[in-house]
Design a protein that fits this description.
The structure is a single chain. The chain has three helices and 18 strands. It has 288 residues and is of the alpha+beta class. It has one domain. The strands form two sheets. It has a 16-stranded antiparallel beta sheet that branches. The longest helix is centred in the N-terminal third of the chain and has 26 residues.
């Protein structure tokens, strides 16, 4: 993944011309391989579904983090009108409701969000040992509805001095808002705040993700995704794609062993391309 996003004057701009050029070159040179995966491996569709879930999960968490810690929605990098938020405190318990409205709010990342993200937490939001629960109410990211239920435990800092969290997920995504096209996942994640923690700027936030989750696709097949401990997923708020990392995929529906999904294809960067290895063959796939 070699193309990068450009952030200029605080605005997120996708280098569309470079991405288009790379896409044309890769899809042409790997056309035969892509056709082979259609029959051999469901065209890697489970990889696209997992990528959608992973990106949506991180997006909900990062929005909640930003609003809770900044006390504002004005720097979420969205077009007007800004989403509203309410904060209700009862003793040591706090409920934060972030409301993007029914019409939706479009961010400078090109994504439109609508509905509500609801955060319940006890004690200071950033304090080590704190726990928060994040749910959604009629919430959409683009055309996909996100039914989220996450528990996030602040574990303090790791040996590198980076803040990290243990995240338990039980989420469902309705593709294009349809209950006929549902993907869901359960499991645990370790979410390390790799860059941007000290600043008030959301677009410089970068996270490293590890852990194991189980994904159930609309066709009923179940897949287990295990992120490599040595090569965690790298997710930047300023990029709509997973930039780097390696995932091992297993499923009872596979007849030839596990799969390896490599997001660091081409050296890492902000694009929708990855590599899927099945047995001894590696395919270039587009995670649309």
């Amino acid at each position: 993944m070699s193309n990068t996003s450009i952030i200029r004057n605080g605005l997120f701009i996708l280098a569309a011309s470079l991405l288009t050029l790379a896409a044309c070159k890769k899809s042409t040179s790997n056309n035969n391989q892509t056709q082979t995966t259609l029959s051999a491996d469901d065209n890697g569709g489970y990889a696209s579904d997992a990528s959608k879930l992973e990106s949506a999960n991180n997006d909900v968490l990062s929005v909640a983090d930003f609003v809770a810690t900044s006390g504002s929605t004005s720097n979420l990098r969205v077009t007007s009108p800004y989403p509203t938020f309410t904060k209700t405190v009862s003793g040591t318990d706090t409920t934060l409701t972030i409301d993007f409205g029914t019409a939706g709010v479009t961010g400078l990342d090109g994504k439109t969000r609508k509905g509500q993200i609801i955060v319940n937490y006890t004690g200071p939001y950033k304090a080590s040992g704190s726990t928060r629960t994040i749910t959604t109410n009629n919430y959409f990211l683009g055309t996909n509805q996100i039914l989220a239920h996450k528990t996030v435990d602040n574990m303090g800092t790791n040996d590198s001095g980076q803040v990290y969290y243990n995240v338990t997920v039980n989420d469902t995504m309705l593709l294009d808002g349809s209950s006929d096209s549902t993907i869901s996942w359960t499991g645990t994640r370790t979410r390390t705040w790799y860059a941007g923690y000290p600043t008030a700027e959301r677009l410089d936030d970068v996270y490293l993700i590890g852990g194991v989750t189980s994904v159930t696709r609309a066709d009923g097949n179940v897949y287990t995704f295990t992120i490599s401990t040595a090569d965690p997923l790298k997710i930047a708020v300023a990029c709509p794609y997973i930039e780097a990392g390696t995932v091992v995929i297993t499923s009872s529906s596979f007849t030839t062993g596990s799969r390896t999904l490599n997001y660091t294809y081409g050296g890492g960067g902000c694009d929708a391309w990855a590599q899927l290895t099945i047995g001894t063959t590696t395919y270039t796939i587009y995670l649309h």
